[in-house]
Design brief:
494 residues, seven-stranded mixed β-sheet, six-stranded mixed β-sheet, 23 strands, 23% strand
Amino acid sequence: MPKYIAAIDQGTTSTRFMIFDHEGNAITADQKEHEQIYPKPGWVEHDPLEIWRRTQEVIEGALKKGGIDPKEIAAIGITNQRETTVVWDKKTGKPVYNAIVWQDTRTDEICNELVKQGRQDSLKEKTGLPLATYFSGPKLKWMLDNLPGVRARAEKGELLFGNIDTWLIWNLTGGEHVTDVTNASRTMLMDLNKLAWDDEILRLLDIPKSMLPKICSSSEIYGTACGFLDGLPVCGDLGDQQAALFGQTCFTSGEAKNTYGTGCFMLLNTGEKPVISKSGLLTTLGYKIGTQKAVYALEGSIAIAGALVQWLRDNLGLIEKSADVETLARSVDDNGGAYFVPAFSGLFAPYWKSDARGAIVGMTRYINKGHIARAALEATAYQTREVLDAMEKDSHVKLTTLKVDGGMVFNELLMQFQADILGVPVIRPKVAETTALGSAYAAGLAVGFWNDLDELSVHWSIDKQWIPSIDPGMRGKLYTQWKKAVTRTFDWVE
């Protein structure tokens, strides 16, 4: 009887292979970075062959480190950086070009042209996504329109397209061309309700349907692995943020997770019907387990969270290392009336104002570096509250708890203030690797390693919980001042 489930966690800067036991504990892992390629300003690329090499290396590395025989593993799940676009030859497996990364902005002309044609509303209605350079569909169109000979080869049926999950599964299984609903929902090519590629959008973007992978659930057997994991079923697939939602066992409508990294990605489970946002959020698939109904989510992104702490360290020299920010912030009792709005590259959800710029407001002679550090931490909590307010407005679903993961969740001061400003408990789980764990869970369900979602919920356990302790009147006053501070950043760039 196999004892373990494995997960490939392919991210923007590195690839990890992790092995978990039946209780969801991480047993062993290996991780390697890959090159970031910047051919022109605004262009970001990865070498798909390098990513596949790193994947093989970390699989071998983790097995060796843990002294684990592949026969002890029941199944493999995959989670991946979403929207990053790969096109390759179906016979040779050779990519026609580097992968175009989700951060890449070269498709702005394609998106602007679609806006001029008045397509944004119809596309958002079908896909849940605003017209943006972020998504895979415009990136694929750019490849077809700009790379010599690629369109002709695609129309002959010689080329395949996929996000990184599809590329890895194809290589891992020796040729299965599939994706799951969560990754498909980030292409801007899938109908949210039908969970199928939309012929009208494919005609609009002039994309041959023969290139596209089969859309599957997030938990089913896609094929069997070759190589180091020969014969093992590959059967879990979730985009990274959805995998974190699943790994956090946010299985009930109204449960949300927030991942605190460079920025913040927040997802709210909205149940079995998509909620189209009127507040600047993305409507996306949360997960789909086998033949069960799909579960949807609202997603909000915050551009600057941990990056603000790095800025205090690197640009201002206020702290030597990022962890020092909590000690500095604790040197004062409150923010002293100072608010820090980190709109360094404009404001994201729910404002979407690219002409905004960062500001520190409420400054007096009383303010010292401790107040600045505290205001910087509080900024992440206030931004999270704004996104959650937008989510509740769109979904009419009231937040009950916020489950958190990512590097900043070990900052106790921030987590307590987050609970205070939201007015709900903030919960950190024992297993922090929620992204890899989520894809492992999906794979394990597909092969009966775990029976159902209830069993996964039992394995999820709390490491620490922060309960709101602030007076509701003070909460309202602080948040009102923050909202006022945000308005001072508007219309800065003319």
